[in-house]
Structure formats: structure tokens, C-alpha cells
Amino acid sequence: MNYLLELQKEIETVRKELDVAAGKDVSAQECYQVSIQLDRLIEDYMQYKEEVQLLHCS
Q1: Residue ranges of the chain whose pLDDT lies below 70
Q2: Going by C-beta distance under 8 Å and a sequence separation of 6 or more, which residues neighbour residue 21?
Q3: CB 14 within 8 A of CB 41
Q4: What are phi and psi of 24, to 5 degrees?
Q5: CA distance from start to end of the chain
Q6: What is the pLDDT of residue 43?
Q7: Looking at the chain, which terminus has fewer C-beta neighbours within 10 angstroms, N or C?
Q8: Which residues contact 22 (CB under 8 A, 6 or more apart)?
Q9: Measured between alpha carbons, how far is residue 34 from residues 24, 30, 31 in Å?
């Protein structure tokens, strides 16, 4: 479960980064890169959470 908490914290950090980048006049490429990073973190979170749930159901 610690891994899920770590992922949640990292997701929030990157989300804030994206908000700041979008609020400032940051290049579209930079925003895109941060957005991709956020997408990957969310995907990792969902996949890990699903795996944990499957293990507990077994």
C-alpha cells in the first residue's frame, strides 16, 4: 500500500506542475511532456491498484 500512497503523492505533484505550466506562458511542448508524465503515473496507479485488488480476491 505504500507504493499507492507514493504514486498518489507523485501524481499530485506532477498535477500541480502541470497547472503551473499551463498558467504561465510555458511552451506547448513542455506542457505536453508534463501531461504525458501525469498520464503514465495515473496508468501505473490504476494498474497497481487493480493488481492489489486481484491479489486480495484470490
Answers
A1: 1, 58
A2: 30, 31, 34
A3: yes
A4: -95, 175
A5: 17
A6: 96
A7: C
A8: 31
A9: 14, 6, 5
In this structure, the number of other CB atoms found within 10 A of the CB of residue 36 comes to: 10
For position 28, what pLDDT does the model report? 86
Given a contact cutoff of 8 angstroms between Cβ atoms, the answer to whether 14 and 55 are in contact is: no
C-alpha grid cell for residue 21?
A: 505550466
Q: What residues contact 52, with CB distance under 8 A and at least 6 apart?
A: 1, 4
From residue 38, give the alpha-carbon distance in Å to each of 5, 34, 43, 53, 54.
15, 6, 9, 23, 24
Quote the Cα angle for 9-47-6, to 5°.
Answer: 20
Q: Are 37 and 13 in contact (CB under 8 A)?
A: no
